[in-house]
Records
---
Amino acid sequence: MFYFLISFLSFLILSKSFTSTPLSIGFWLNLSSSSISRIKKSSISFSFSFYKAPLSMPLTKNMISESKLDDHEGEGDKISLLDLPELPLESILERLSPAELCNMAGVCKSLRDRCQSDYLWEKLMKQKWGKVIGDSAYQQWRCHVASRNSQINQQNQRGLFGSFLWIKPKSQNGGQERRSNDSVMALYISLTSGKFWFPAQVYNRENGHAGFMLSCYDAQLCYDSKTDTFQARYAPHGRWAVEENIPWERLRIPPMDISPHVLYTSDCLDDLRPGDHIEIQWRRNKEFPHGWWYGVVGHLKSCAERGNHCCCHLSDTVILEFKQYNPGSRWRQTVINRRHHREEGNEVDGFYGGIRKLHSEDEIARWNNLWPTKTVE
Amino acid sequence: MSSSVEAITVLSSDGDEFKITVSAAKLSKPLNWMLEDVCFSDDCDEVPTIEVNSKTLVKVIEYCEKHAPRANSGASDSDAEELKKWDIEFMKMDVKDILFHILMAANYLHMEGLYDLACQTAADLMKGMTVSQIRKIFHIKNDFSSEEQEQLRRQHPGCSFD
């Protein structure tokens, strides 16, 4: 009975070890502690003996036996790094930096597989790239990998026809390369080495250019590890604009997963009240991509900000203010209709599109941090 | 268990007897259960076994006794600082000989602090080492074919795999 319990425990530990911290074992032990005390009555010298046998998992043993040094075999009570159960070994490896993990991957086959695992790299990904890599970037990465794989397949097929030998060309090697291509580690390395251009949005594009103050535009970005900054390619009408040396703080994950050429359907028009923080799409003309512009909902002229008596939210007319511009500027204010607004504007002033209301304090704080030191003409 | 007991006796997997104070034993969940469940009074002559070898158990108990006062009562920052220094000294041990035993024991005895400390020590040993140095320290054989090694180099040109 006791041995059954132990093997049951070790099974639980084994199955849990892929996902959780060491302390989660406590949960399972807690569950079974009442059984332990029952058994104990018949034999007092009980032990938590899963330390000795079941934790050194048979699967691991088989995998590692080849890479252990021969002279180590005789040393019965010594534990090698590769003898460690899944969980402790993982706990060690997750304390390594990306470069150290890469290094460890070159030690032996078993460590190569562990050090390349998505589980370890997802954590590193989140740490370094979590704030700039979003769904659209992952999507682009998957397309990138798929197109590279189809290139490899085509090359293989060409080789096949060229040689007239109806034997599958080294599918094992090809398979191995494909597998590592779509790993999280491969994405991390491609990003860090600047080989992968990813979609994101850039605040105050073109280095605080007055024409883009307090806006956020879609771009393709590439990291430069030497300067710890990014290079951006914007897609305006006609030509690509390029900007270098963009710091991390000016990047964000696109909050809406839509193309900059698509008009966003506002879902907050009825809720807009004076003082609300918003972002609104704006484009110069209908061929240009939209950017997102920060603004605040203002009071109607007739209202004069009468505190509790303000009725601006009952009116169909909504005033949007862009206070980075001088009061006299034509960009300072625009008016939209709450009921019918989709896109408004003309070829001179540009077109104001979809509106999203900002709810998150963080988002609002980021805009405020980007505020220009003087108002824009 | 009567509250008058201040220390308990346990057996290592080698059969040696060890004394551990009750407050130190509380650092480990399983030992804590033992305190609650097992009879430690004088007329009870059976001694529980802990499946950790003597060499390792000495160190684990040393760690528990050192950390017990702080764990039970909380401590000032200067104590915490002193304890950190002590931990560093404590972890200066032969890796293949005992570090991994300590790690396994901490895992088995559910000692979070010691577990983290041992993992960090092991990870620190890997830092700044070449692949061949790591193989040497941890007794690992290079089982890559030259083709596989070449493939690794190709995939991750930034890393050295010598």
Note: The longest strand of chain A covers residues 215-224.
---
Amino acid sequence: MPLDQNSKRDFKVIGKRVLRPDGIDKVTGKAMYGADMTAPGMLVGRILRSPHAHARIVSIDTSAAEALKGVKAIVINADLANPEDEFFADIRDNCLAREKVLYDGHAVAAVAAVDKATAKSALRLIKVKYEVLPHVTDVDEAMKADAPVVQEGRADESAPAGSSQNVTSHFEFGHGDLDAGFAKADKIIERSFKTAATHQGYIEPHACLASLGSDGRGELWCCTQGQYNVRTICSEVCGIEASQLRVTASEIGGGFGGKTTCFIEPVALALSRKSGKPVKLVMTREEVFRATGPTVSSSTDVKIGMTSNGRITAAQAKLRYQGGAFPCGTVEFGAQAAFAAYDLEAVQTLGWNVMTNRPKEAAYRAPGAPMAIFAVESVVDELCQELGLDPLETRLKNAARKGTLSSYGPTFNDIGLVATLEAAKAHPHYTAPLGENQGRGLSCGFWFNFGGNTCVSLNINPDGTVGVVEGNPDIGGSRASISMMAAEELGIPYEKVRTVITDTNSLGFNDVTDGSRVTFAVGLATIKAARAAIDNMCERVANIWGIDRDAVEWVDGAAQPAGPNAGSHPPMSLAEIAAVADQTGGPIAGHHEVNADGAGVSFGVHLCDTEVDPETGATKILRYTVFQDAGRAVHPDYVEGQMQGGSVQGIGWALNEEYIYGDDGRLQNAGFLDYRVPVASDLPPIETVILEIPNPGHPYGVRGVGETSIVPPLAAIANAVSRAAGVRMTELPISPPKLLKAMSERG
Amino acid sequence: MKKLHISTSINGDEAQFICAPDETLLDVLRDHLGLTGAKEGCGTGDCGACSVMLNGRLVCSCLVLAGETEGAEVETIEGMANGDDLHTLQRVFIEKAALQCGICTPGILVAARALLEKNPDPTDTEIRYWLAGNLCRCTGYDKIIKAVQAAAAEMRSV
Amino acid sequence: MRYVKPENLKDASALIGGEEGISRILAGGTDVLVQLKAEMVEPDLIVDVKHLDGMREIVAEDGGYRIGAAVSGAELGEHTGVKALWPGVVEAMELIGSTQVQGRATMVGNLCNGSPAADSVPAMVAADAVARIHGLAGERDIPVLDIPTGPGRTSLAKGDIITSVFLPARPDHASDAYLRFIPRTEMDIAVASAGVSLELDADGTCRAARVALGAVAPTVVLVEAAGAALVGTKLDDAAIAAMVQAAEATCNPISDKRGTVEYRTKTAGVLAKRATLIAYARAGGQK
């Protein structure tokens, strides 16, 4: 759906900082999240988890636990169904291990009991015999031919012959003649990089309340980024029909991609089916870290050639991502995104997906992109240092723009990279003085953004108010944005619209809240649904006035006569039309169903000043500014919020966050004490500059904004630290011991 | 496990409950008293989502045994507004978009109120250190700090 | 598990002394409840001592202060007298955990938890603090330095309850400081730490010095040679260097998820230096 011809119109609602509809519930404690729901007679579920990184399950003896008073059901993998599709079978085997446990924390069995204490006791009575197997947790180790094999026979046809079976797929993108390009370079830098696995770190642990009868009819309440996706997975994994399972999404306490799959919902349903009672299952924080999706860890080689005046002549990246104990596809995104910010004659990216004995990777905000772009932007920065070039000018010189053949195939339409770079250049931050031990870094960032399956109903109520029904959990204020777009289109005040997120039985299928798709795709469908309702209202008014439909137009929330033959009629407002709907054909509604394409890619540029302590290796973020193209900022507060939140997650990734495994393959920091997400006192204000380069694929020009912001911080910080410390840092996180060691080796 | 009978005051109202000796105040608030505004983000005092006031002190309710609250005065997020009249902090948090998912919000509001009662005119740095035990993964804290400052300014002017 | 609030110290000691299973004393609970949650320990008996006489009090005594075992970090931080006399001890205590944790956590709990990384302990050791213990055989005083015996272990006997810690009087021109290193600015366990207490002559010459290090050995250590390196000097560069060298030489840390041997050793020396300079300035010394 293209950008409106009149997209430069004066918006009345879009761009305003209206109050979010769920605000009062969330500041008073009334909002209902995953763990806040109860049901009469409900049981408490708990999950037994593997203490081993890799082991064969010889036997599971549940008899003693079953005999414990108050235990109502115990389930293992065999209690789940047998989906044909490997995608669902993998989720099933991640929810409850089959034959082997594949990582520390892998679920083995689950109990439902009358209370927490009984459930806890029951877990201890379940006897699991393991045959411990060799394990591997590092991506480079796992690719070696003699590495322990996590799962056999999982490689697809793209996996290179002769490599370890842990390598499950391979991707390649690019164009041009690399050799010729490197031959033209005055300087070539080739470096290797590593990034640790990080967790989405949402504050709300996974939680659900399930009720499933022996007739296959079920109700499921859970915190998820997509209730329809949960329904699909649970239907497959539990062997029930989609129509019989109603899934309702609770308010969601953060997701960042980590709640786009299932970890506990099928288990809770299976426990409920077996016990005949509702079962509530809530993860502990430790379980969240050990058994839900972190992002991949990576190992990357980047080689870039540049002329002495700063033009990139050729670029290559080799990316190796481990996505835990099951095949994942994440390296494809990394290989596509790595050089997206550059207009290149010769570029190649190669990617390998690898299995290790770690938890199954889940999406994390711009999955696959931050680590690839970290490596690329680090090498670009080092080239600028070596050649004495300004890093912003150099990026401008090489920046992708409209008409650029991207490194991953498509030719870019209107994009905002140059505008964001120019904005950064003009900002006082870029030229502010720096002190001793301080350094400034910058990085570009990119994300594709996504549209996808979307279904919206818009109901004109008899009193002239409007209800929007949509199916995407609101993870950062989207209900406000959707109401704003409905109000804008209908020409009524924002306050007259209420948007609700409905259950799976009340609206058609919607893809999950991911890919920064909601404001774009649900917004687009809402605008279309509003236009359908407007068309319907104009038709009715034409009938009332006895004129042609074409002679009625919609202006400022009312139907009015248009053109020379329309005659003279006072405008009929939406409320007036709604009031007589029963006499003009009954209820008025608009619908739109679409598999939306046209999501515009989004670029951002981050500027960061750091100071390093030469005696301890500590890094302090002094100043941080984010420039990002939002296409159209529907609700600027929440656009800024996405830019700030993603930046801070990236800052954590760059400096302190990491999954730490011991030699035994067990996770050593499964808690917020030692998995160190940034706290308020670690940070300066995060300044934001929103650019608006309209997306040609949306009527108002909206682009997704949620993900791009996590991409640049890794390199922006690494570049700032490397400049401050006088030594190039190539491994994340740049924890103080690592930095101090690098500085002392620098001499 | 023999249960304890506890009498306490919650948001100014008398409350009695029966709890197991190993249950926390957070368990009791959420599971027995239906006060689910305090959230369990970690259960180990690292995230602050379960913050409440206990006898006038800001605490993590996950680090208090319910049995300890005999005769105590507990204040939770549910008691922060006066009827339909939101506390200034609550209103300003909505106005300044200081929340995204909102799961950390009750804990942050309870903690911020405790700060402003002690220090009505804090610096940004003081706010950031006071709230360092309240993790927020959505906002990057920026709008939270600004909202606390805005609310503090408004509260000082009344 | 039983939860008991005994009526007096004698009963408390008897309860714990007589318990055949696992018992825990509950003051602030910020360690005990974490251990319960993690299922690291499942006590049969929890004895709450907060309500007992003197436990919540800070009392002036012989020019110093006696701090009850259940005084929280927040309460200690609000006590202007203790803060003026022993600023390093107070700042060490206040570094533990969040504001929320400060509402409950106690210095004695920090000591009894037996962690080599406990923030308040190096500061108390530098201050030569003395713990008062109520045991089955009555009351006795033991230097804080002698309480920890290893990670998670103490010299306390069954039935022993620390009821207070005594911070002694100090002469003019004396002060203390505490620093720790953590990767973030808050909410972490010390990777290394240093508590330093100095007494100066009127002209700024160091008359006495105690340097204690945390997280670099199985227990908090008092580095006598480090203190000795400062005595008789005005903290010139050579004296500081000698002090740092002595501090580093004492370090016997482990490598773990929080830091390496090399990093802990180096950082302990840096912190000892920085804390020394802060204490010196606080004591009125001028460099």
Note: The longest helix of chain A spans residues 518-545.
